[in-house]
């Protein structure tokens, strides 16, 4: 359909999906299997993302293998111990109580890679990062589509990407952009957990918007 | 509303917004002013994006100043000339015919920055890029919300980010992640222009998805 026009009701639904999207960790995931059809739909959403020069530079590894998950948890634990000592005071004790991943609890994990092109890519000649950023746009599409399907998604960034690439036998040409945990949940928290715990305050929009009129 | 459940109709609307979203350039933008209310709504969508450690590391500069836009176009032109010589054969002549930005034509431009924290950020201790990636998630939210409002958005990446930061008098601590052009359009193309022109082929989803079951 050319020139599809969306309505204010459509906008309101999109806004709600964005508003109720959460980063989900292991204390919220259910073991209920996620149907392959749902995984396909989440990956299809990724493929609808914008990409620099229409390069579609993304690759996905869908992981359900317990042995693989256990090895990734080891990398998380190593990195999480290193992280814990960086925080001070109240944050130090709070940090150690937080559940920051759901690798084993989520029935499905997806590793998302950026694979660079050997030829020049239109639009990527002055800002190389545009390739990786295309992959991140795809991840945000996955996150929103998962939430619209009432499925939780959590992004685990406390891992050593090179170690995890070794565990996953990834191509040396690929960069690991994200390690995602996906599954049904007992509940979606009303607000981000780190906001509820006052780890960080929500910023006022006007404090981060400037004008050159 | 806690535990908001979305329906298959909601999923279908999200899928359509993703499907009909386009990267819009200067040959499609209309000069019709974009109400401040619409800009606010697009920025609000950005603020609903996930961010590592709830760090919300984004900043936005809304640009309507013609003089500023003209200077940014100069950076585009310099970088675009450098880019043109990188392509060969059919692509070389096609490249020079493409309209690859809409800086002047779009009534509103938005520069989007990542500003790193001086303190350690939860979740960013092992993968530093997670901060920039949060900003890209915010940009994808803006893109989808704009499309749901029937407003076009184009991401200009053929610029020298340091030169543009100079033009915009950006903080030296901020990294320019994206330069966006926003406005109403005469039409949204049915498919991405680079797909229609066979610059690149659409990848089959199955060719980029692998399994570790």
Could you please describe the fold and organization of this structure?
The structure is a homodimer of 213-residue chains. Chain A is an alpha+beta fold and 213 residues long. Chain A has one domain (24-195): NADH Oxidase. Chain A is 38% helix and 15% strand. Chain A has 7 helices and 5 strands; from the N terminus they run ααβααβαβαβαβ. Chain A has helices at residues 8-20, 36-47, 66-84, 90-97, 130-148, 161-167, 193-196; strands spanning 58-63, 108-115, 152-156, 174-183, 209-212. In chain A, strands 1-2-4-3 form a 4-stranded antiparallel β-sheet, with helices on both faces. In chain A, α2 (36-47) packs across α5. The longest helix of chain A is centred in the middle third of the chain and has 19 residues, at 66-84. Chain A is globular, with a radius of gyration of 19 Å. The two termini of chain A are 36 Å apart. At the A-B interface, α1, α2, β1, α3 and α5 of A face α1, α2, β1, α3 and α5 of B. Chains A, B: Residues 20-184 form the Nitroreductase domain. Chains A, B: Keywords: Flavoprotein, FMN, Oxidoreductase. Chains A, B: It holds the Pfam family Nitroreductase. Chains A, B: This is 5,6-dimethylbenzimidazole synthase.
């Amino acid at each position: 359909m050319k020139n599809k026009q969306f309505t204010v009701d459509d906008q309101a639904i999109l806004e709600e999906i964005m508003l109720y999207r959460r980063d989900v960790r292991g204390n919220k995931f259910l073991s209920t299997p996620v149907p392959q059809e749902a995984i396909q739909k989440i990956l299809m959403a990724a493929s609808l993302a914008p990409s620099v020069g229409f390069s579609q530079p993304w690759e996905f590894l869908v992981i359900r293998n317990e042995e693989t998950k256990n090895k990734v948890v080891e990398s998380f634990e190593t990195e999480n111990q290193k992280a814990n000592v960086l925080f001070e005071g109240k944050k130090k004790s709070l940090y150690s109580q937080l559940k920051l991943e759901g690798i084993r609890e989520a029935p499905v994990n997806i590793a998302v890679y950026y694979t660079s092109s050997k030829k020049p890519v239109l639009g990527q000649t002055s800002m190389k990062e545009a390739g990786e950023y295309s992959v991140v746009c795809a991840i945000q599409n996955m996150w929103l589509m998962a939430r619209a399907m009432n499925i939780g998604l959590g992004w685990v960034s406390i891992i050593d990407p090179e170690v995890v690439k070794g565990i996953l036998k990834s191509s040396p040409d690929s960069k690991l952009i994200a390690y995602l945990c996906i599954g049904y949940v007992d509940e979606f928290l009303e607000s981000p957990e780190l906001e509820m715990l006052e780890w960080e305050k929500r910023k006022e929009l006007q404090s981060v918007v400037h004008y050159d009129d």
